[in-house]
Design a protein that fits this description.
By secondary structure, this protein is an alpha/beta fold. Helix content is about 40%, strand content about 20%.
Amino acid sequence: MTTWISHRGYTERATENTAEAFAAAIDLGFEHLETDLRCSRDGHIVLCHDADLARVAGSSLRVHELTRKELAEYRLAKGQSLLFFDELLADFSSYQWILDIKPEQAERTVTVLQQLSKDPAIERFLLEQSRYLLWQDSHQRTLTEVLSGAFCLARDKACYRAGTAALLGVPQLGGIQKGQYYAVPPRLKGVPILSEAMVARFHSQGAHVIGYLPETSEQHEQALAAGVDEILTNHAPELQKLKSTRSDSF
């Protein structure tokens, strides 16, 4: 069965990466969520994709230049507030997560996670309910050193290399690692690439495929027909519609 993952929450009425966006995704049936981690000037982890607040709050100030108090005072484009990691732990720790640790302050973010992991309950969350995406080898090594057993997803270059090899029918040449998860988009430059044969080639190497950000009903169906293990999506209504359609067919 394919696992559906909400990319930054459902954002029809809420700004991405807010409590309201994640609550809306959960209401629509998601049990697995994805978010982005950055660190404030005074060492608090805040959920924000961009390095600055221009897109979500109309400010050119950078996240790491602001304190938690200053960040908390911002009202975002759709009226919500930024969400901090301790708030995520308080309200959403029963769900599965992908935590994308942004590179600009990654070492500091990892240090905060290490400090939080001294609490056994938080350590369990970080190791058993979270997977990680880091953008530099050194940051990934640091995370796995301080959180032994943390699972890090394949990064963009590894996904491209593995996907190209699988598409060409030579997955053994793609450096595909057993047990790893690789993101593959439904289309590349407008050409459909995600197919049952491609996914089967990943599976032949003991790896898993994430259907990466399908944008239409057709692309969601394409990913499901290909047999992907997970779908990372912005479009929560697709989950409800496709679940309903598939249950009616049995």
